[in-house]
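Q: A reviewer asked whether we had any structural model of the full assembly, not just the individual parts. We don't, so I'm hoping you can provide one. Inputs are below.
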Amino acid sequence: MDLYKYLPKTNCKKCGQPTCMAFALALLQGKVKVDDCTPLVEEAKYKKQYDILKELIGKEEGQEKQLHIEIDEDKCDGCGICVTACPVNARYCPPTLSGKAPDYPPDKHQLFEVKNGKCQLLNLEHCRRLEAEGRERECHVCEIYCPREAIKILYI
Ligand code: SF4
Ligand code: SF4
Ligand code: SF4
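A: Here is a predicted structure for the entire assembly that you could use as a starting point for your response.
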């Protein structure tokens, strides 16, 4: 919402997004640039909003931000909640919904695995956040469910 409030809010679609809200989300994910909203760039009445957005988004704009899921080994106690809570694990291996570890090889779709008492991140490319355009989700499940606050989702 912090980004959205500085957009023109006309839903003109010139940026290729269906709404200004969708554009704000894409901006947050680093998938679009402020300058992709042409009314904001071209219309003088939006100059102040444009400047604020550029300030908010920061100087790294233009460099594609990549998804990182960081696991703090010092905080992780190997409880395995992330393994059973991640919707990708549940989708490809429904028994995880009842608390069981995925029973398929970790080189398939599994995102997390507990090894030697610590969680490890496996196939990040299967994270819901990286699914095909239109199917990706603002998933925060692993971050929210980790009782030790050991997981951080970042775009850097
Ligand atoms: S171009 Fe700008 S005003 Fe138009 S929909 Fe996209 S974000 Fe909204
Ligand atoms: S939920 Fe958190 S503490 Fe538990 S295994 Fe996963 S990262 Fe470690
Ligand atoms: S963000 Fe969602 S899909 Fe991605 S690893 Fe975390 S729980 Fe799984």
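A: Points you may want to mention in the reply: The CA atoms of residues 40 and 87 lie 37 Å apart. The chain is about 25% helix and 10% strand.
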